[in-house]
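Continuing the series of single-chain predictions for the mutant panel. This is the parent chain; the variants come on the following pages.
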Amino acid sequence: EIFINYYEILVRNAFGNLRSILKEVSYSGLMASYLTFQNSESLAASGTLPDENYARESMQLFSVGLIELTEDGAYQRDSLGNPIETYDTEDIGEFAKCWTGFSLRDQRGNVDVEGHSRGNRIDPMRIRGNGHDSKRDLFPKTNLYDGHLGDGYPLCADLPDSHFLSKGARWSYIGHAPGARLQPEAIHEKTKYRMHGLGVEQYRFGPNWHWTLDESAVKSIPRIRPNPATSLLYQQLCGNRAIGTK
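Parent structure:
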């Protein structure tokens, strides 16, 4: 079943664009297994360098290739006539940081599991990028052109006034503690262990990473939504403007 699911990714994107198919393939648990970046960890998390396999193959086989090309497909050459390589070992190491923190989703009961395919390789993988136990590399990463990934996005200082009130912006109540982190939208992590022969689920949540056996406590994380008519906070921030209209 996992191989059929992967084949359907190729069929679904056969007449699409490279970006879409590369993204979907990269989130495939089967691809992560074969090219070994599943559960790859950052240097800060593991003390070792991240797995470089997919960082290399995604460039060599799936995208830019080994040599820079001209518009007609000929090799680009330097002043000495040598072909110009598209990337080097430093680029591979830098891009390997991008493929950290990917892990399989929880197993579903309606998925066939055989031998090495144990684990959910049907659903797209998740990125475990938040919290003190994050495995993902969170530092800036360079691109192939002496810049940084994400250089196309505006800096906070360049955004218009009250951009956080724009349509599509999200609000999260993070509490009053000085070191409060963003509250997770749902259960952040769930682990199962054996207690007196019974499977017991334990949930982890909140800015201080509390553990509880009560799932309802996790789902009742507070939210804040100012009322335009009565909220002093809303009136101070928005004046006569309405949230979501900008």
